[in-house]
From TrEMBL:
Domain of life: Bacteria
Protein's recorded name: ChrR-like cupin domain-containing protein
Higher taxonomy: Bacteria, Pseudomonadati, Pseudomonadota, Gammaproteobacteria, Cellvibrionales
Domain ChrR-like cupin: 75-171
Organism whose genome encodes this protein: Pseudohalioglobus lutimaris
Length: 221
C-alpha cells in the first residue's frame, strides 16, 4: 500500500506528496494508479469550495453553557460540500467534533439522485432521518427512522429523492470512516479532518489548511 497526503490551503487546494509515508514523489511516478486517484480527489476537493466561497460569512451557532453542556444550533451554519469523488451533491454540517469524547455530530443533506462513497466504519453511528428518504443495500429509511450502525459496517448510502439526516458518530481512538473510491483508493476521514470543519462557514472551509489531516491510501500497484 502507498500512503500519501492531500492538502488544501487558502490559495486553493494543492496536492502534496511531501508527507508520503511510503512513497516518495519519484516512486509515485511509477505508480500510475496512485497518481490518477489522487488527481481525481484533488480536482473534486478543489472545485466545490472555490465555487461557493464568495457568498458566505462566518456563522457559528454553538453556545457553551458550561464545561459540560453546550447548545448546538445549525440553522444558519453553511452546508459544506463533501470533498470526495462521487459525493457531488452531498453536503455536511459538522455541528460538533469533540476530541475528548471522541464523538462527532453532523447533519448530512443528499440532493436528489446523489450518493456517498462506499465507506467502512471504525466508529459507531446513529443516523436519524429528518426528511426525505435514503438507503443502502441493507435498508431504506424515511422520516423518523434511524440507522443504528456498529463498527465494521460497510455500505454505500444514496438517495433518489433527497434527504436530510442528523448523525452522531462515536469514534474509536479518533478513527471514523474509511471511504473506498471506485478505483480502490481509501480516503480516511478521521477526527483531525472532522475537527477542522467543525462549525465553519464555506469561506472558512476554503481557508482550512488540512495538510496531514487527510490520509489517502492508494491500492497496491
Ligand atoms: Fe455509514
Amino acid at each position: 500500500m502507498h500512503a500519501i497526503t492531500v492538502s488544501m490551503n487558502g490559495a486553493g487546494c494543492k496536492l502534496s506528496v511531501a508527507q508520503s509515508k511510503v512513497c516518495s514523489p519519484a516512486m509515485l511516478d511509477d505508480v500510475s494508479g496512485c497518481r490518477r486517484c489522487v488527481r481525481v480527489f484533488w480536482t473534486v476537493v478543489d472545485r466545490p469550495f472555490q465555487r461557493l466561497t464568495a457568498t458566505n460569512q462566518p456563522k457559528r451557532r454553538t453556545t457553551m453553557i458550561n464545561e459540560s453542556m453546550s447548545i448546538l444550533r445549525d440553522g444558519e451554519q453553511d452546508w459544506l460540500p463533501i470533498p470526495l469523488p462521487g459525493a457531488e451533491g452531498v453536503f455536511v454540517k459538522v455541528l460538533k467534533a469533540d476530541e475528548e469524547m471522541d464523538r462527532v455530530v453532523v447533519k448530512i443533506r443528499f440532493e436528489p439522485g446523489t450518493r456517498m462513497p462506499r465507506h467502512i466504519h471504525h466508529c459507531r453511528a446513529v443516523a436519524y432521518t429528518i426528511s426525505g428518504h435514503w438507503e443502502y443495500d441493507e435498508g431504506k429509511f424515511g422520516p423518523g427512522e434511524a440507522a443504528w450502525e456498529d463498527e465494521g459496517n460497510d455500505h454505500t448510502p444514496w438517495s433518489d429523492e433527497g434527504a436530510e439526516l442528523f448523525i452522531v458518530f462515536d469514534g474509536r481512538n479518533g478513527r471514523y470512516l474509511d471511504n473506498i473510491l471506485p478505483c480502490g483508493t481509501v480516503v480516511k476521514l478521521d477526527m483531525p479532518f472532522l475537527k477542522a470543519f467543525e462549525g465553519v462557514s464555506l469561506k472558512e472551509a476554503a481557508e482550512v489548511d488540512v495538510q496531514n489531516l487527510v490520509e489517502v491510501i492508494a491500492p497496491a500497484a
